[in-house]
Amino acid sequence: MCGIIGYVGEKDCVSILLNGLKRLEYRGYDSSGIAVLNKEDNRNEISMVKRVGNLKKLEKALSKKEMKGSLGIGHTRWATHGKPHRLNAHPHLDCKNEILLVHNGIIENWGPLKNELISRGHKFISETDTEVLVHLVEDYYNGDLVKAVRKALSKVEGSYAIVVMSKKSPNQLVGARQDSPLVVGLGNGENYLASDIPAVLEHTNKFLIIEQGEIANITKDKVEIYDRNEKLVNKSPFETNWDISSAEKEGYEDFMLKEIMEQSIAVRETYRSHVYKYKISLDESNLPIDIIKNIKKIFIVACGTSLHAGYVVKGVVERFARIPVDVEIASEFRYKDPIIPNPSLVIAISQSGETIDTIAAIREAKRKNAWILTISNVMESSAVRESDGAVYTFAGPEIGVAASKTHTAQIMICYLLSLYLAKVRGEITSAETAYYLNILKEVPSKIKSVLDNHSKIKELANIYYKFPDFIFIGRKYGFPAVMEGALKLKEISYIHAEAYPAGEMKHGPIALVGENCPVVAIADDSSVYNKILGNISEVKARNAPVVALTTIGNEKIKNLVDHVIEVPKIPEEFSAIINVVPLQLFAYEIAKKLGCNVDQPRNLAKTVTVE
Ligand code: M6R
Fold this sequence. Notes:
Elements: E1 3-8, H1 14-24, E2 31-38, E3 45-52, H2 55-63, E4 71-77, E5 92-93, E6 99-107, H3 110-119, H4 131-140, H5 145-154, E7 158-166, E8 169-178, E9 183-186, E10 191-194, E11 206-209, E12 215-218, E13 223-226, E14 238-239, H6 244-248, H7 255-261, H8 263-272, E15 275-276, E16 279-280, H9 289-294, E17 297-302, H10 304-321, E18 325-329, H11 330-333, E19 344-350, H12 356-367, E20 371-376, H13 382-385, E21 389-392, H14 405-424, H15 430-441, H16 443-451, H17 454-464, E22 469-474, H18 479-493, E23 496-501, E24 519-523, H19 529-540, E25 546-551, E26 563-567, H20 576-593
Parallel strand pairs: 17-18, 17-19, 19-20, 20-21, 22-23, 22-24, 24-25, 25-26
Antiparallel strand pairs: 1-4, 1-10, 2-3, 2-4, 5-6, 6-7, 7-8, 8-12, 9-10, 9-11, 11-14, 12-13, 15-16
The chain binds 5-amino-5-deoxy-1-O-phosphono-D-mannitol (M6R).
5-amino-5-deoxy-1-O-phosphono-D-mannitol is lined by residues 303-306, 350-352, 355, 358, 401-403, 491, 604, 607-608.
């Protein structure tokens, strides 16, 4: 996830772009850049500054440089393809240094396009997927920037919001969007393009939303929007009454809710950046094929929510790749003198990549000659740098302390990794891989349908918020999701919650159950459905109020339990990524009902860098 902005008007726009990027910094902050076109005395001169690091670095560089222009674009980056580096920072330029482009999204077919463009003589300087776009526009530019952008975009697959400017069209910006947001801010004698409203809210409260597949052609006093069929679209602007702080949350009450709601996008971007034409590419993992083929054991090291993703890895890697997996609490790992057979793969999972317990576990595993792969949401994080390879989730920055979208993105990576290992080890065929990838491709829309059910989950929370204790139960693939559901409830609502594999209840925890201790049970369509029904009957017999998470269409279970949360059907191996979402919403709504600060729960920090 990145932030993009563009300005066309008469003012000197460097500070407008910089301030806009500051409002967009929550979308990414590993590098940034601004380019402007100075039209004074017809000189048509482009100046550009890019810096690695947060916007303070860019601001400092700009303060030292004479830079003027009334047409300009800016970008704040969350690295996806290519590490945070000045060459990978946007804006990107064509070969003639005349066309400039900023992009948010992922171009899935950038590899073949890049090869094709290189064979036609284009020179690339970055490792990004984005750079192909600007070279494509260059190829098609024939005096009409809109046409060139349209043609370029017809060649690409993936997601994008882009803003393009050209030295040769000095009074114009072109923007386009597919699966990444883009708005037009309407000013007086000036207009803006931006990833979201807050970026330009201090200049205007009048906006147009660019819809899927649309292209916007913008000058200082004109905005034209074209649909996919090149037809002019007539849109009425709307006025927003947001203030800046609510706008950063895009109208949501908290970052956590916004991030929960962003999950279908986070999961889709993570899938898209690793899958192209039914092939899983984990190139950045550097995982040697001979290691994959000979691994004796996999160890997962992680903490908190990332640890729960580790339990998902265990389930699917053992199922598909048939490699034994141990899930290890990172803070314990280095003290137990772990026995690591050779060759072993240690997978560290950390959204931040800075959790000290996980980094210490990586060091211990390294000392014992394991091959280390880190799954992280942050490129160039410490865990990544200390590992032999990395695979990234593309969830964008997560601000709420309680993990949500980074977790579902981690689960998507777990699924892809397990299929990849299984394929390389010959446990599944190409056809089977394609079959499973087709299922995973549908996950974002299934998550969206769960999110659309938000109001029903809120109603449930309004009933259950009064209980002091909760027990969450699940079996097999259902267990990681209940662990995460219980953690979410604890950390943001301060209600005591425990998760148990349902069959374990009778060995002790069932003693806690009664009318004051509700049970949340995962009872979706699965090979253990009848078993979990038995476990639900046991707690019902002890008067526990029961909320069952069940597959849409299961009417029968409604006679057994007090309330149901319905989830879409998906094969059981891939159910965790769906089932965890309503549990996040349930915890969120209970916490809100209790008046808790969900973004900054007491005693917690987003990144735990102390032991
Ligand atoms: O950045 P990491 O994934 O390494 O963080 C691990 C845990 O600290 C984190 O998941 C924590 O449990 C969150 N509060 C969960 O919401």
